[in-house]
Amino acid sequence: MTQYKGQHHILVAIDCIIFGFDGKDINLLLIKRAFEPEKNKWSLMGGFLQPNETLDEAANRVLKQLTGLEGVYMEQLQVFSEIGRDPMERTVSVAYFALIDLHQYEKQISEEYHAEWFLLSKKPRLIFDHDDMVRLAQKQLRYKAALHPILFQLLPEKFTIPQLQNLYECVYDTLFDNRNFTRKVMSTGLIVKLNGKDKSGSRKGAYYYRLDKRTYKVKEDAFLNFVPKADKFI
Predict the structure, then answer these.
(1) Which band of pLDDT confidence, cut at 50, 70 and 90, is reported for residue 113?
(2) Is 112 a member of any domain?
(3) How many Cβ atoms sit within 10 Å of the Cβ of residue 40?
(4) What is the pTM of this model?
């Protein structure tokens, strides 16, 4: 096999950042690293690119092997290439991220690598530059959620405005004004009001809504500016 003369070989790694919404909080999926350096420390799901696969294929393989999760749509985040990021060998990492409904995938989680969900606000310190990866993924998630209705996919078939607001408040780690939030949601035309009410939170109750899937499909990539002044959270 012909090789480029005078060039050094560098490892290409894949790291997967999986956020999970449990109906109340945003969580982060982590595993304990099985080998040195940093053995038994908390880590993102990572592995190395193989000669016969693309980056996307590698990300799906790594995630399935280390957690059991499959069928998760992951978006490429960024390349991390600091020279000393891995003390063992020069390694460039391509990070991927996703936000999923935790309950939808919880039965797939493998016990082999002791994958665990942590509240994002209480996650342990991670190896190498994985904390930087998580922060950047969180920032990118907030940016996308401000412009596109991506978070609606995490809700149950019927939901209330307070449930939707709680989801956005979890992602942005802040509180939104109830009236302004409701007005903005209704202006999108993405949801349809149902007859029933959820009375678990109050006597008056909150009306249920459902996602208008046809409208969502049209507006999925539209710039809705869903969160006013979102730049201050990014």
Answers:
(1) confident
(2) yes
(3) 10
(4) 0.89
